[in-house]
User: Fold this.
Amino acid sequence: MFPASVWEKVRALGAGDLVVELRGWRWGVVGPRRSFMPCVYEVCSPCPTRRDVYLRRVMGVRAGGGVLRAGRAVHEAFLTPFRVAVSRELSSELLSSLKGRVLRGVDGWVRKAVSRVFDYAASLASRWVIDGRSPPVSVEPCFPGSPIGLSDVVRPDLVVGVVPVEVVLGNGFGRKRLALAAYAMSIEACTSTPVNYGVVLAVSREGSARWRVVLVDDALRREFLDVRDSVARLVEEGDDPGVADSCPDTCPWGWACRGGTLRM
Assistant:
């Protein structure tokens, strides 16, 4: 289902020959080091200091909804055609109905982005169905997180073969790298199959899509483990890490760091 450019990048990286020590099945090395096990979102938080994790887990603050709703709408737009395509029941009539359902209650720039993303995903999924095949895709599959020190279950957006794929709205490539490392190691822990790369699909506010291939090498895995442990320590010890110097405008907890009244 990937564009040819993605496969070309994988071949260029030589991912099939990657030598990695920190595989997910090495539980004694990559397993939990603290009693608290964060979720993937908390490790991959857009906040540089992870204060959003502190606000949520320690202070019980609830997130603002606008940004979260937009992100969920874009995810649903991309994933919906694949949910249906895996059963080989995709048709133009069904796609039209599904698109109407996805767009319901969505307006403004989000509606335009959702519409464009849905059409793009539908075209990718339809190619397989037209050829009489089911896409080699699992949509939001569940994998165990505790073997690698995360919450009980982790759910990548898509898995193509054993390759995790993450969809992100906006410029979230940097933090989604850590998500791919987490998913790769979780898949390895579950299947004992090496996962050497992952893919990020970044969606702009206009709905355009850009694919990025991420090599899941030892450096990225070690970065993930370090951040995971830092987040776990933050929650266990309850220390406020402070407001980040560059608070992202899209952070769902940004209102609290900018002087809003905390809602417990």
The longest strand covers residues 163-169. DSSP finds ten helices and seven strands in the chain. The longest helix spans residues 108-130.
